[in-house]
Amino acid sequence: MAAQARANESTSPIDLDTGIVEAAEAALGAIGAARKEIGQVIFGQQKVVDLSLVTLLSGGHGLLVGVPGLAKTKLVEAMGTVLGLAARRVQFTPDLMPSDILGSEVLDESSDGKRHFRFIKGPVFAQLLMADEINRASPRTQSALLQAMQEHHVTVAGERYDLPAPFHVLATQNPIEQEGTYPLPEAQLDRFLLEIDVGYPDREAERRILLETTGAAEYKPSPAMTAETLMSIQRLVRRLPVGDAVVEAILDLVRSARPGEGEASVTDKLSWGPGPRASQSLTLAVRARALVEGRLAPSVDDVAALAIPVLKHRVALTFAARADGETVEGLIGKLVERLG
How far apart are CA 141 and CA 167, in angstroms? Predict the structure, then answer.
């Protein structure tokens, strides 16, 4: 009952001015159309689709974690088409160099014999970049991409080159095969807004996959919005009001996951916890999720639904907790239960 009361308080119509309501209602149509188009090619992964949309609508980057063959690449390709973004894909390998992603300078000679350097842009100059198996590249290459994610520009030979707007990275990781990989450091994981677990489809969804993807023709999604529309929705997300109940729930959740601040029964099992960027990510993501769900303001339920995707990659268990069979998801679930 307490959670419901706080949810009602956070969605009170007095929190919304006329301009925001009109912009939000226009955005809801575009988002609904995008969900429908993506759903025509991605089956049985609605939660993954919605979390990916939340990531982009919030203006952030996402980390897709799942075994091979679960349509992660197809999802990014479909999202690029449906959202009207110029999309590219890079397969990360141990021998991939930073210049293979950022670009490099080449020496050109003109017809009159004069020589000059010309910068050839790399695949990072895209609006939506898929970094496939990002943990297979060396830390040097990972850092080059993650710097671009944070600063939205690259520096080559002392010259700054701005990335396209909007700029988003959806990276993938295989959680099973870790041989020959370079796990992302905690500080770099923190730059991903959400960590999205991609699981197996249910039986009916897999039946649909069999019937609709092995024939002579395959559905091609159509654009549902443009890059300019996406950026306008991203600006709207930052304007949507967040009720005091939702803000307090975000603070309660994030701060309770920090050693020394939350209940000892939970925090004693954590070696480190989330910083303020987790609170910022939740505040943006709950607004975007409200729009994806067809609502004009977030509720405490949105905080609970996004707790694991936002916090999972921002906390770590102690060795003793892992030995006792504890999981990050389980501990976050206990913290979520206390929100009510």
Answer: 18
CB-based contact 269:321 (threshold 8 Å): yes
Instruction: Give Dmax over CA atoms of the chain in angstroms.
Output: 79
DSSP state of 134: G
Q: How far is CA 323 from CA 168, 262, 311, in A?
A: 37, 22, 21
Instruction: Give the list of residues 6+ apart from residue 300 with CB closer than 8 angstroms, or none.
Output: 3, 6, 7, 10, 245, 246, 249, 339
SS3 call for 116? strand
Q: Using the 8-state DSSP alphabet, how is residue 130 labeled?
A: E
Q: Are 295 and 286 in contact (CB under 8 A)?
A: no
> Residue 23 in contact with residue 33, Cβ under 8 Å?
no
> Looking at residues 250-273, what average pLDDT do you find?
88
Q: What are the strands, taking DSSP E only, across 187-298?
A: 194-197, 270-272
* Residue 34 identity (one-letter amino acid): A
* CA atoms of 122 and 155, how far apart (whole Å): 12
Collect all residues with Cβ–Cβ distance below 8 Å to 240 and sequence separation of at least 6: 20, 24, 287, 290, 291, 296, 297, 298
The answer to whether 300 touches 246, Cβ cutoff 8 Å, is: yes
337 SS3 class: helix
107-165 pLDDT, tens digit each = 887 777 788 888 889 999 999 999 999 999 999 999 888 888 988 999 888 889 999 99
pTM for this predicted structure? 0.89
Residue entry with tokens 């969900």? 35
Position 18 confidence tier, pLDDT thresholds 50, 70, 90: confident
Q: Which residues of 54-85 are buried (b: 16+ CB within 10 A; e: fewer)?
A: bbbbbbbbbbbbbeeebbbbebbbbbbbbbbb
* Rounded-to-integer distance, Cα 121 and Cα 31, Å: 31
At 293, list the tokens.
Answer: 């769900």
* pLDDT for residue 16: 58
Identify the CA nearest to 88 among candidates 79, 96, 97. 79
